[in-house]
Amino acid sequence: MRRSTPQLEPVVFHTLNTLAMLMLAVVTLYPFLNTLAVSFNAGNDTIRGGIYLWPRVWSLQNYKAVFVSGTIYNAFWVSVARTVIATVISLFLTSMLAYTVSRREYVFRKPITIIVVLTMYFNAGLIPYYFLIKDLNLLNKFLVYIIPGLISAFNMIVIRTYMQQLPDGLIESAKIDGAGDFRTFLYIVLPLCQPVLATVALFIAVGQWNSWFDTFLFASSKQHLSTLQYELMKLLSSTMVQSTSAAAMYGADPSAKLTQVTPVSIRAAITIVASVPILLVYPFLQKYFVHGLQLGSMKD
C-alpha cells in the first residue's frame, strides 16, 4: 500500500485539477452562451424566462432592431477609427514616456514618475474636466476621442517596468555605435517590448471601443461623431421606454405580445454586437497578453 501511494497521487491530482478546470470553464463560458441564446430568442418569449444555452423560439428580430437604423453603420466606423488611431498614438507616446523615465541617467525621472502616478489617485472632477475640454476647443470634434487619453499612468508604469528589465548593454552598445536616444528607442527598445506593447494595446483598444460616456458629454450634438456604443445605449434606452409604455397600455401579462423586442432581448443582442470585434482581435494578442503582464509586473 505504501508503494502504490506515490503512484496514486499524480492521478488524483490531475483528476481533481481537470474537474476544477472544467467547472471554471463552464462558469466562465455560461454567461456568454446564455447571452447569445437570448439574443437569438424571440423577445416576447424571453419574458417567460427559462432560456439557458439554446433559444426556445428562434428569431432575428433583435438584431434587425439593432441594425434597422442607418446611423449604426456610421457609428461603427467612428468607433473603429477612434480605436485604431487612439491605440496607435497613445501606445507610441506612452511607451516613449516610459522609456524616458526608465533610464537611470535621467535626473528627473523620479519627479516625473511621481507626477504621473498622482494622476491615478487625484482628479479635479467631471465639471472642471468638461470646462478643460471646452477651453481646448475639443467639443464636438473627433480629436476629443484622441487627445484626452494620449497618456495613461497605469500603462506607462507597466511598460516602464518591462523596459527596466532589458539589458543595459543593448542600449549602451547602440549609443557606442552612434545611435541617439530616439533611434535607440525606435529600433532597439520597441522591438524587444512586443509582449508588453501588445498587452497595453489591448487595454487601450478595449477601453476606446467600449467608451460611450465621452460621446454623451462632448459630441452628442453631432450625429456624424456618434460612436457605436453610444448608439447602442440610446437604442436600449428607447426600447425600455417603449416596453414600459406598452405594458402600461395593454397590461403586464407576460403572454401578451406587446412588442417584438424587449429590453432583455435587445440588451443581449447589443452585448453580442459590441463584443464580437474584440473577440475577433483577442486571439491574435493572446500569446502576448499573459507573458507581457507577467514580465511587466516584476522588477529585479
From TrEMBL:
Keywords: Cell membrane, Membrane, Transmembrane, Transmembrane helix, Transport
Gene3D superfamilies: MetI-like
Membrane topology value: Multi-pass membrane protein
Domain of life the protein comes from: Bacteria
Keyword Signal attached: no
Transmembrane segments: 12-33, 76-99, 111-131, 143-163, 184-206, 264-285
Record-annotated ABC transmembrane type-1 domain positions: 76-285
PROSITE patterns the record matches: ABC_TM1 (PS50928)
Subcellular location: Cell membrane
Pfam families: BPD_transp_1 (PF00528)
Record carries keyword Phosphoprotein: no
InterPro entries, per the entry: MetI-like, MetI-like_sf
Stated family: Belongs to the binding-protein-dependent transport system permease family.
Protein name (Swiss-Prot/TrEMBL): Binding-protein-dependent transport systems inner membrane component
Organism, scientific name: Thermobacillus xylanilyticus
